[in-house]
Amino acid sequence: MLPFEFQHLPGKPVSEQLVFSVKKALAKGQLKPGDPFPSVRTLSREIRINPNTAQKALSQLTQAGILEITPGIGARVRHQTKLSAAETAAVLDEPMETLVIEAKRLGLTLDTLEARLRHFWKDLNR
Q1: What is the gyration radius of the CA atoms in the chain, in angstroms?
Q2: 51-88 burial string, b = 16+ CB within 10 Å, else e?
Q3: What does pLDDT average to over the chain?
Q4: For residue 72, which of 39, 45, 46, 43 has the smallest C-alpha distance?
Q5: What is the mean predicted confidence (pLDDT) over 93-98?
Q6: Same domain, 66 and 108
Q7: What is d(CA 19, CA 6) in angstroms, rounded to the nearest whole number?
Q8: Which band of pLDDT confidence, cut at 50, 70 and 90, is reported for residue 94?
Q9: How confident is the model at residue 87 (pLDDT cuts 50, 70, 90)?
Q10: Whether residue 89 is found in the same domain as residue 105
Q11: Is 90 exceeded by the pLDDT of residue 57?
């Protein structure tokens, strides 16, 4: 059994969905630094995906600094270091701008957008 929830959604690459599921599990506290992470073989079997797809997701998680792989031991969730303000901005500015553009395009007010943001923030803290 996987230490995080995963659900196939049509129209999105499976590797991206897997990376998102892992990030969400970290935010919810389902995965913690130091936790072992499933192997490519386990991921592909449990999620029923091609091993190449599982490897791609594992590589993306490693490059993002979320996982670390130790030969002979396997993958583990990496201890996260505090990011500087500039590093945080580099990670968040583009998706935040995209969110604001979409909200304005849909005619949402700032209050409505803030309410939706609070909703998802609280949902992750459950």
Answers
A1: 17
A2: eebbebbbebbeeeebbbeeeeeebebbeeeeeeeeee
A3: 93
A4: 39
A5: 94
A6: no
A7: 10
A8: very high
A9: confident
A10: yes
A11: yes
pLDDT on residue 2 = 87
Sheet holding 36-37, edge to edge: 36-37, 74-77, 67-70
Distant-in-sequence, close-in-space partners of 24: CB < 8 Å, separation ≥ 6: 4, 5, 124
On the question of pLDDT at 105 being above 90, the answer is yes
Backbone angles phi, psi at 35, to 5 degrees: -65, 140
Residue 126, pLDDT above cutoff 80: no
Long-range contacts: 120-126, Cβ < 8 Å, 24+?
124/24, 124/27, 124/28, 125/28, 126/28
> By residue range, what is the domain housing residue 43?
14-77
Contact present, 54 and 38 (Cβ < 8 Å) = no
Backbone phi and psi for residue 120, each to the nearest 5 degrees, phi listed first: -70, -35
Question: CATH number, domain at 66?
Answer: 1.10.10.10
Is 91 in contact with 83 (CB distance < 8 Å)?
yes
